[in-house]
Amino acid sequence: MNAPLTVPSEKNTSSVVAQGLRFPPSAPRVLPLLKRHLVNTNVDIRQIIDLVRLDPGISARVLQAANSVLFSRGARCHSVAAAVNRIGFDHIFEIVANAVAEQVLVQPLVSYSIDADEFWRRSIACGLAAESLAELCGEDTNVAYSLGLLHGVGMVAIDQWLQRAMPTLGFFGRGFPKDFSESERVLLGFTSADVGAEVLRGWEFPPEMSEPVRWQHAPLNSAAHRRLNCLLYCARWISARVCADAKVSVAAVDGRLLAPLQLTPDKLACLQLPVQRRLDAVQRSLDDCGPGEAA
């Protein structure tokens, strides 16, 4: 078994680890602004275009999506303005959030023995599951999608920190629902959920996103944002079912966690196949995207 970290306790905190992602690629700073604009039905589309243009990576992704088979209709886009208008409000938020996933989340997590593709699929699947649950339960779908998409960002921060401080340390995962949290707590004294909440706070995401990330393994332990806490837990369950090996058994969700969402086990299970299909469609759309052009 790995020995506990010898880093002094005053330095070995979730906040300190989270600070390693205080200055990530610019997309996470653009995303909250876009979210606030996109939920405003009176927003001028030029404001969306101006925000997208703030980040080269997002600009490239939006252009790629606009020129994909799904949106192009045979006519090519060469500007962000044309691409945003072509894609429309209904799709632009998800595309931007996926750009965040590619820039921030698509990397191997050495300390967790998770490769980049696997982590990306888990993140996207959880985002899609959270969005589907939000639609079913009357929650904000944009908030839910980002919440699911970024629920594992604390693992990124921990892994980057450990590769600098103690690259030989590794964690043991037990699968859903605890994932790596027990091993993290033994070795570090905190979990990636704690770090993830600190990261989102540092990126100026609202408490309704940071706190469900903090309580994703124990959603009933906090009264604040309980519905979103349970929604994220259930989204993680769907993601685990969608992404797990066929031979791996995923524990059922406790009925107490379904009650705040007014869900039954059957209703929750029925979302698995649609999420799987949407995940496959996202993967195909990314495979179809050619090189993006600068705005």
Helix and strand arrangement:
Layout: H1 14-18, H2 27-38, H3 45-52, H4 56-66, H5 69-72, H6 80-87, H7 89-105, H8 116-137, H9 141-149, H10 153-165, H11 181-188, H12 192-202, H13 207-214, H14 226-243, H15 255-258, H16 265-269, H17 272-288
Helix pairs in contact: 2-3, 2-7, 3-6, 4-6, 4-7, 7-8, 7-9, 8-9, 8-14, 8-17, 9-13, 10-12, 12-13, 13-14, 14-17
Count of extended strands: 0
By CATH, the superfamily of the largest domain comes out as Hypothetical protein af1432
Q: Which spans of ≥5 residues are poorly predicted at pLDDT below 50?
A: 1-10, 289-295
Helix coverage percent of residues? 55-70%
Label the CATH architecture of the largest domain. Orthogonal Bundle
What's the CATH C level of the largest domain?
Mainly Alpha
| Binned strand content | under 5%
The count of helical stretches stands at 17
Mean pLDDT: 82
Distance between the termini: 51 Å
In this structure, how is the largest beta sheet organized?
A: none
Radius of gyration: 19 Å
Task: Could you tell me the CATH topology label of the largest domain.
Answer: Hypothetical protein af1432
The SSE order reads: HHHHHHHHHHHHHHHHH
Structural class: mainly alpha
Shape: globular
Quick summary of this structure?
This protein has 295 residues and is mainly alpha-helical.
Can you put this structure into words, describing what you see?
The chain is mostly helical. The chain folds into two domains: 24-105, no CATH class; 107-295, Hypothetical protein af1432. The protein is built from 17 helices and no strands. It has helices at 14-18, 27-38, 45-52, 56-66, 69-72, 80-87, 89-105, 116-137, 141-149, 153-165, 181-188, 192-202, 207-214, 226-243, 255-258, 265-269, 272-288. The chain starts with 13 loop residues before the first helix and ends in a 7-residue tail after the last helix.
